[in-house]
Each structure stands twice: as C-alpha cells, then as structure tokens.
Amino acid sequence: MSPNTVVRIVLQVFALFSLGFWGYLAWPFPFPSLFFVIGAPLFAAVVWWLFRSPRGPLKTDPLGRAIVEIAVMGSAAYAWFSLGYPLVAAVFAVVALGSGIIHFRRELRAAE
After folding, report:
1. SS3 letters for 47-111?
2. Which of 2, 15, 33, 91 has the smallest CB count inside 10 Å?
3. Which value, to the nearest 10 degrees, does the dihedral of the CA atoms of residues 40, 45, 47, 51 take?
4. How far is CA 75 from the centre of its chain?
5. Residues contacting residue 99 through CB under 8 Å, at least 6 positions apart
6. pTM for this predicted structure
7. Who's near 47: CB < 8 A, 6+ residues apart?
8. pLDDT in single tens digits along all 112 residues of the chain
C-alpha cells in the first residue's frame, strides 16, 4: 500500500465526515438536519461506489472517475467553506487535488 493510497483513504473518510458535519450544522434540527446528516454522506458514498470504486458495478474511464472524485471532494471542501472554515476547506482541497493528480497519472499509465 503506497503512501498516496493511505492519504486517499483518509481523504475519503474525511469527505464523508465533512458532508455529515455540514448537514448537522447547516440545517435546523431535527428536520431537515437528520436527512442531510445521513443523506449527504450516503449519497456521496453510493456515487463513489458506483463510479469510482475498483469493484464498482459501473466501469468508467479514468476521466469519468476523476470527474466523480472532483465532485465528491469539491463538495466536501465547499461544505467547510460554507460553514465558515475557509482554511480547512483550502487545506483539504489542496491535499485532495495533489493526491488526485498523482492517482490520475497512475490510472492513465495503467490504462495504456
């Protein structure tokens, strides 16, 4: 397992946490807050599983997988920004971008 793989796993877990945290703080409790606390991370996880997972049911090319990754990681970064934590959003976005570029280059080499 490469160091980038470990970073990517941490980023994915943090992205799901970020979406749930956003749902908790951005909406009035209990409804619709509970819907977003559960629904936002669940939706992101299902989309990730469908299009991005190596064993997912839908096989896509590296560009399609990159688009899904940008959407999930970008929404997590925006969640922090909308909550008033721009530094957390910026650090998360930069680390996710760097890790994503490294992984995308590996996927392109493997696809050739």
Report:
1. HHHHHCCCCCCCCCCHHHHHHHHHHHHHHHHHHHHHCCCHHHHHHHHHHHHHHHHHHHHHHHHHH
2. 2
3. 160
4. 7
5. 4, 7, 8, 11
6. 0.93
7. 68, 71, 72
8. 899 999 999 999 999 999 999 999 999 988 899 999 999 999 999 999 999 998 899 999 999 999 999 999 999 999 999 999 999 999 999 999 999 999 999 999 988 7
Place of tokens 């749930």: 20
18: its two tokens: 């970020």
Residue with tokens 């997988």: 65
Distance from C-alpha of 72 to C-alpha of 44, rounded to nearest angstrom:
6
Coil, helix or strand for 94?
A: helix
The domain locations on the chain are: 3-111
Q: Which residues contact 37 (CB under 8 A, 6 or more apart)?
A: 20, 23, 24
Rounded CA-CA distance 29/33 in Å is 5
Helix 33-51 and helix 62-82: axis angle, to 10°? Answer: 160
39-61 residues labelled b (16+ CB within 10 A) or e (exposed): ebbeebbeebeebbeeeeeeeee
